[in-house]
Amino acid sequence: MSEEQDIKKIMHVMRRAPHGSIYTYEGLEMILIMAAYEQDLSVVFIGDGVYALKKGQETSGIGIKGFSRTFMALDGYDVEKLYVDRISLEERGLTEDDLVVDVEVMDSLEIGRLMTEQDVVIHH
Amino acid sequence: MLHTINKSPFDNSTFETCIRFLQPGNPVLFIEDGVYAVQAGNRFAPILETVMKNNPVYALRPDLDARGVTVITEGVATVDYEGFVGLVEEHQVNSWL
Question: What is the third-level CATH fold of A3-123?
Fold first, then answer.
């Protein structure tokens, strides 16, 4: 098998707020592992998932390290396709300026179209 | 792409979120507590009817039976486990956990 055939299109869908459960952190860890295998990764932030990217998270008071900065490092792992659902952002009173990384804000249907192009879609 | 929903729409926004991303023709399958979405006359029935204009909608029969959901919104098709497998064979799966 050629190298190209080994590369899968994998989309990670972040759907939960970052500190109420382990899902987002675990999802991020999975993304980093997959990035090491040079897969064609994209990450989508939908619903409370957008809170994972909120600027100004200061987690020392709740006794955890926090990982919003790790999303900033994704670029270094060649994970550059970060998409945010426009409605999810707007209904939370947020704009792109409130986020820690550069993302592409997209309409739901456009994100839905990208989903259909994937080999695998994983929700976190 | 087959979208599966396994959470009650009364407890969780997964159903309402998922339908924003549906491409025309994509089937939706309700399983586990997701099947409460298809109970006839509930507050999601009108939304479901709109969805069904462009997308086939299924609910897993054993999960309906287990929950006593016997009267379902018109147009929703029921499948057994074999039908579930058939849908999965036919489509890429997007499991909205």
Answer: Hypothetical Protein Ychn; Chain: A, (3.40.1260)
